[in-house]
Each structure stands twice: as C-alpha cells, then as structure tokens.
Amino acid sequence: DNLDHKLMQEAGDLIAAGKEGKKLVISGYTDSTGNAAANAELSKKRAQAVQAFFEKQGVKAANIELRKPESTTGAQGNNAEGRRVEVKVAG
Fold first, then answer.
1. Closest CA to 19 of 55, 67, 47
2. How far apart are CA 28 and CA 47, in angstroms?
C-alpha cells in the first residue's frame, strides 16, 4: 500500500510538471530475452502507453518526448528491472 501511494505521488508530481510546461522525457525498456527487433517494438509500445496516460491526465503532447535509449534492454539477469519505462523531467 505504501508503494502504491508513493507511485501515485510520483505520477502526480510528473503530471504537475508536464502541465506547468516542463518536458517529460519517456523511455521504454525490455528484458534481455527474446528477439531484438520485437523487444525494440515492445519498448516503444511501453513508452507510448505511458505517453497516453500523461495525455489523459491533461499533459499536452508538446510537453512529452519519447526518447529511445542507447540500449533498450535492462541489466542482463535482472529481467524484472528490464521491463520498465523511465520518465524524467527535462526542464
């Protein structure tokens, strides 16, 4: 329950930053298993799903940037960590 509360608070902070005109940079990742091309598409879809969430919360599309990371796969051997989306406030 504490983790859910913390996640909701962090999401709220990101939504507020986006509504204030700050750019939210979203990057998607996958684990290191499976086909590389399929993983690249999956990481993109993860980022797009988060983008859609922020837009539904009232963040303008112009304040959201999808950025492909240098490596879309997470740390080898840590598949749970690899399956994630990172959101950063760029200013």
1. 55
2. 5
How high is the pLDDT of residue 74? 66
Query: Residues 17-39: pLDDT tens digits?
Result: 999 999 999 999 988 888 889 99
Q: Virtual CA dihedral for 34, 35, 37, 41, nearest 10 degrees?
A: -30
- For the cut 70, the answer to whether the pLDDT of residue 60 exceeds it is yes
Q: Which two tokens stand for residue 84?
A: 């994630």
In Å, what is the CA distance from 66 to each residue of 23, 43, 45, 71? 10, 11, 10, 14
Q: Residue 1 is inside which H or E element, if any?
A: none
